[in-house]
Specification:
Elements: E1 21-28, E2 31-38, E3 54-61, E4 64-68, E5 75-77, E6 82-85, E7 91-96, E8 102-109
């Protein structure tokens, strides 16, 4: 296997994208690492993510608000803030900074039941 290098900050859209942009950086059995670029996008009201995998997410650049089901308030996330979301922890993105866009690093961990 060949070594691969890059930068999370290279190749960002020059204009805020109309839709969230997700790029898989690395995928292996049981693991997927993604860069997500959000520019004002949020999960539609009343919808929740309910993923079968654990997810560790880090805000690399920008700001966002994340709501976890059962919590009364959004979690404010800024550069360097991370959250671990166990499988089936229902959550939604309440808000993302539009300019400059919010850049996330998401690590999905799949475990066999």
């Amino acid at each position: 296997m060949e070594a691969k290098a890059g930068s999370l900050m290279s190749g960002l859209p020059s204009q805020p994208p109309a839709e969230e942009v997700t790029e898989t950086l690395l995928e292996r059995p049981g693991l997927r690492i993604e860069r997500i670029v959000s520019a004002g996008q949020a999960t539609p009201e009343g919808q929740w993510y309910d993923q079968a995998s654990d997810e560790w997410v880090l805000v690399v650049k920008g700001n966002a608000r994340l709501r976890l089901e059962g919590e009364a308030r959004d979690r404010e996330l800024g550069e360097g803030d991370f959250v671990f979301l166990p499988a089936h922890c229902r959550h939604r993105v309440a808000w993302t900074q539009r300019e400059p866009p919010t850049v996330w690093l998401a690590i999905h961990i799949f475990t066999k039941c």
